[in-house]
Design a protein that fits this description.
The complex is a heterodimer of chains A (115) and B (113). Chain A is mainly beta and 115 residues long. Chain A contains no helices and eleven strands. In chain A, the strands form two sheets. In chain A, strands 2, 4, 5, 9, 10 and 11 form a six-stranded mixed beta sheet that branches. In chain A, strands 1-3-8-7-6 form a five-stranded antiparallel beta sheet, with no helix packed on it. The radius of gyration of chain A is 14 Å and the shape is globular. The termini of chain A are far apart. Chain B is mainly β and 113 residues long. Chain B has strands at residues 4-7, 10-13, 19-25, 32-38, 45-51, 57-58, 67-73, 76-81, 90-97, 102-104, 108-112. Chain B is globular and about 35 Å long. Classes of the chains: A mainly beta (115), B mainly beta (113).
Chain lengths: 115, 113
Amino acid sequence: QKEVEQNSGPLSVPEGAIASLNCTYSDRGSQSFFWYRQYSGKSPELIMSIYSNGDKEDGRFTAQLNKASQYVSLLIRDSQPSDSATYLCAVHLNWLTGGGNKLTFGTGTQLKVEL
Amino acid sequence: GAVVSQHPSWVICKSGTSVKIECRSLDFQATTMFWYRQFPKQSLMLMATSNEGSKATYEQGVEKDKFLINHASLTLSTLTVTSAHPEDSSFYICSAGTNDEQFFGPGTRLTVL
């Protein structure tokens, strides 16, 4: 089982719709969760971090964390063509199990927002 | 947010030469820096983790004698690809971290002829 799993997509949504991106992780003791956006040919850009169960909103982005079910999701409201990118889920694995301070990334979900 | 720079942004070199890539955290002191490699249409692959003043920790399968990492200060880490070959052509990205978040540099595209 991969440590961090994402559906590779592509996920296609019409402009103005809500895009929902999902991620599951295997280490129940993980504490910190991040969403990065990566445009083609560019490096990843941190867009959201979440540490507690529940929702965290920042502009059009909402991150949701459910530690009991071991999933984290990212909602993008009013999707725009400029949101078209690959979205990477990243997790700080549990320090106690040797995760250290490095991030473990999923393989990313490609999002396409269509006009 | 925190700013991380990389230099050069791209480099083309002949097979057998060595290439040095610099990674700097511009507005914060990074406790740890990370080096990643990404091949086209593939995910990020962590190569090594470096802490200031100590030896880098390499991921399994990464040759430490080929990819030399020096982390001389809290704001600067360098990756040297020694005796580069065409299969080393890739997108190399560094990130600098505080205890929690990591911020990525813009990346260096290496092409070995």
